[in-house]
Amino acid sequence: MTIKDLARLSGYSLGTVSRVLNNQPNVSDKARETIMAIVKEAGFELNSNAKNLKQQRSNSIVVIVKGRANELFAQLVEQIQARVAGTDYPLIVHYIDEDENEVHCALQLCREKKPVGILFLGGTSQNFLADFGEIQVPAVLVTNTAAHLGFANLSSVSTDDAAAACSALSYLMDQGHREIAVIGGDCQVSEISRLRYEGCAKALRQYPGMELCSYETTRFSLQGGYASMERVLNSCGHRVTAVFAMADVLALGAIRCIYDHDLRVPEDVSVIGFDGVPVGRFYTPKLTTVRQQTEQMATDCVKILLDTIDGAPSRHLTIPYDLTIYESVKRLNAEMKEDSKSCEAVES
Amino acid sequence: MTIKDLARLSGYSLGTVSRVLNNQPNVSDKARETIMAIVKEAGFELNSNAKNLKQQRSNSIVVIVKGRANELFAQLVEQIQARVAGTDYPLIVHYIDEDENEVHCALQLCREKKPVGILFLGGTSQNFLADFGEIQVPAVLVTNTAAHLGFANLSSVSTDDAAAACSALSYLMDQGHREIAVIGGDCQVSEISRLRYEGCAKALRQYPGMELCSYETTRFSLQGGYASMERVLNSCGHRVTAVFAMADVLALGAIRCIYDHDLRVPEDVSVIGFDGVPVGRFYTPKLTTVRQQTEQMATDCVKILLDTIDGAPSRHLTIPYDLTIYESVKRLNAEMKEDSKSCEAVES
DNA sequence: TTGTATGCGTTATCAT
DNA sequence: ATGATAACGCATACAA
Question: What topology is assigned to A3-55 in CATH?
Fold first, then answer.
């Protein structure tokens, strides 16, 4: 079934049928009715290949997800799906490994699929600086800022990772912890890890002489968290009173490791995570964490992309985070200090 | 950049360029070399819209995922992605709500995208019986069996849900539990819930006079598990000694609820789950569960789909499950009974 | 308001 | 082994 058949069946011409199908003006109500009736009756769908070929673009939005085992990205994808479903932009979700180059991948997909826009879930400044210039369509980088990169067609929606990490570590120190280990990614490879590490460093400077017991790097996974915690306990012994994990999955892995060493959380070792994944609230103990507002990020990145597709200028949004205090961090000192710090959404 | 440009740049004609790009015979090595060099140099990609339009089909595989918040499906999608990535079939992943009709969705996508094959993650016999006949391309239903439906182009890869549930409940009873509650989905709506419920019923018949304390239905989510457990504790009081949750997310939600009632798992209430999601092994207690072998399911469904695309007849595979015994179930009696039951892979 | 004609980039058929 | 050309289904500029 093609629009040719539709034309034949309705008695109208190809042009009129096409106009009806695209909700264009200059069509009589009668024609519209007649044709739409047949469309409904026959369950007709436009051939997207022909449409896209003709229009020289595919009307679809490409989502490039960097890292498969990332619960935060999984949440984001789900929510982005839900928000784009209302529009008539089909979503093409493409997963790549953490160490692949997301911009190269985007370039290839652009050539092949000619999308109207791109959403990057995760990414590295380096890669963008090197090759993003070749990309013509509007794009939004999610979870990293792109404000400093200066591309006219690249927006970003991100959490202030440094500030958030700083806030997490400050919270531990405010609770009296001085022997702290941090678990995260390789700062050379993962920009997010680097930013969070810098946040930690900033927090440490507030307490002169304060140093980390250790910084263990790993992949962002439950197993990674477990293994890193194992190394922390081996190298620092039972001196450590608190751990900051740069992702909730790491925190959950670490907690299980702590239990397996016959220690308790938070009585013996406190743990704070990062992300705010749902399962953290159903853990025992409920995970204290720096929550990223995924719903907000999803809403905003979709909105910005749609706006920029419609010609709006690019924007760079910083999404607020919350220090979500539950049960996995113990106060060591008597000092009572309310530190439910959270930053405001700012536009830069 | 099109094959026209490629023809101009190489000095060959459109036909030759197309033949080279499609690895067809009857091309001189020289032409192949010259043209491929330019392709590589320029990073040329065929326009899939034009290709698909011409070929009257899209070469892509559609994956229809029923239910967004399903960790098991998320795992499957990830693994299917990985396995299809090696082929040159692009994957179109389409998420629909639990209560949408997956076959209608497939029909629409077939008309629009003309895929070579379809993967259904979740589905209902009813919907398939009603409308699957209209679908011409090979398809595989994953997590439900389609053996009894009798469609020549519909294969299936599934766990024996009834047997697996039976095995879970039997395990609880073998451990001495007699006051058991079950948490799952609405048997009217969810075929999987119905099968698992039937498995429970079968297990109960092994112990004459044995009845469930209650069967609570809910959505498959952490919150759902928590809320259902709340209802169990309210209606059955503290009589209940064990709970079978028809999904690990339900089990994790339930465990947290039990803790919040100042009861311990498994000392006061035992919990057994279903699925075998990774986080279960990092929980405290480690979750005893009926593990579905997602890697196997992913591998098999992709293999079967590719085979049937190549003309092989449809197949119906039952994937083995394991009773994975960890820490969340306590033995109430002294009776020592090894029941690490697991079924074998069978072809029906 | 409607109809007609052209071309998008590719594959495939035919001729050379 | 290669080149010319027609079609795939649609949107759109132009004609009526």
Answer: 434 Repressor (Amino-terminal Domain) (1.10.260)
